[in-house]
């Protein structure tokens, strides 16, 4: 029987206690970046996963390609249902699995994959609080090397993974425009640290409230703030009926979206494509 989740976050102790459990799938969703702002480039972190180690039994989930739409106009555009099913099934995920995701950064990539799973109706998924950094710093076991590929289940078996109907957890450019104009109000939350955009960059979306990921994660443990501390971080927007989070490309935005989910906010959307999509669709922003 798969372990039962009671929160979008699980502790390192919870994962240590459940490693090896039936139907538990642990995924390393790390992505490495080079450069800042418009010069940013993203690279798969599979080499680091194999050479520098990972949680024992964890499989590498490739957000750069497998869990994104290939040849899309913006990097990390969310996958369609068919591609998502294939990518999840290749990693051994079934509809009865419990999935725990982590990364080796501040949690933006694991939160992104968590949001993708949820958007397709899969709720038995959580993020490892503190990620690989906290796991490693606590002296927990680390495995080096690649795992054997998972044998994908045949489509007509009960083990085949099927995505549910996509939920309205994403915002597009038109939705953000309606928030900016006031036609359909929403609080816009900018989740990326300003330093990630470089020294010179086009303006962010008008009317945004900056709540950067590094203000909602404990710098000593890499874990999310909790309780009153987390509430204070989002105090300016918590009363909004709907919140749209965004960042540079739609990854850090998912950290804020996860934190808001922990706080119980029920209407949060992530702007897929985020500033890269906004800038390419708003010529006046690039001209500023």
Overview of this protein structure:
The protein starts with 8 loop residues before the first strand and ends with a helix. The strands form three sheets. It has a five-stranded parallel β-sheet. A five-stranded parallel β-sheet has the order 8-12-11-9-10. Strands 3-4 form a two-stranded antiparallel ribbon. By secondary structure, it is an alpha/beta fold. It has helices at residues 12-18, 46-51, 81-90, 108-119, 131-137, 173-181, 227-233, 252-262, 274-281, 283-287, and strands spanning 9-10, 24-28, 31-34, 41-44, 59-60, 98-102, 125-128, 170-171, 187-190, 209-210, 243-246, 268-271. The model is unreliable at 152-156 (pLDDT under 50). It is globular, with a radius of gyration of 18 Å. The chain has ten helices and twelve strands. It has two domains: 9-137, Rhodanese-like domain (Oxidized Rhodanese, domain 1, 3-Layer(aba) Sandwich); 170-287, Oxidized Rhodanese, domain 1 (3-Layer(aba) Sandwich), CATH 3.40.250.
Key features of this structure:
single chain, 288 residues, alpha/beta, Oxidized Rhodanese, domain 1, 2 domains, 10 helices
């Amino acid at each position: 029987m798969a372990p039962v989740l009671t929160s979008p976050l699980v502790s390192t102790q919870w994962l240590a206690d459940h490693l090896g459990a039936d139907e538990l799938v642990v995924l390393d969703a790390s992505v490495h970046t080079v450069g800042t702002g418009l010069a940013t480039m993203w690279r798969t972190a599979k080499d680091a996963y194999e050479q520098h180690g990972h949680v024992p039994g964890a499989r590498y989930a490739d957000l750069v390609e497998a869990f994104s739409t290939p040849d899309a106009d913006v990097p990390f555009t969310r996958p369609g249902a068919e591609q998502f099913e294939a990518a999840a099934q290749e990693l051994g995920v079934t509809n009865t699995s419990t999935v725990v995701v982590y990364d080796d950064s501040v949690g933006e990539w694991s939160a992104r994959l968590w949001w993708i799973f949820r958007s397709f109706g899969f709720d038995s998924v959580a993020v490892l609080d503190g990620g690989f950094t906290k796991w490693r710093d606590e002296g927990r076991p680390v495995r080096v090397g690649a795992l054997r590929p998972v044998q994908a289940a045949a489509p007509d078996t009960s083990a085949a993974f099927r995505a549910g109907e996509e939920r309205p957890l994403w915002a597009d450019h038109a939705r953000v425009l309606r928030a900016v104009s006031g036609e359909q109000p929403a609080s816009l939350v900018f989740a990326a640290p300003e330093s990630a955009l470089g020294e010179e960059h086009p303006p962010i979306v008008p009317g945004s409230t900056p709540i950067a990921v590094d203000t909602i994660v404990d710098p000593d443990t890499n874990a999310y703030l909790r309780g009153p501390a987390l509430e204070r971080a989002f105090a300016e927007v918590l009363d909004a009926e709907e919140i749209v989070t965004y960042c540079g490309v739609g990854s850090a935005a998912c950290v804020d979206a996860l934190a808001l989910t922990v706080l119980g906010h029920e209407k949060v959307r992530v702007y897929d494509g985020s500033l890269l999509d906004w800038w390419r669709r708003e010529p006046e922003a690039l001209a500023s």
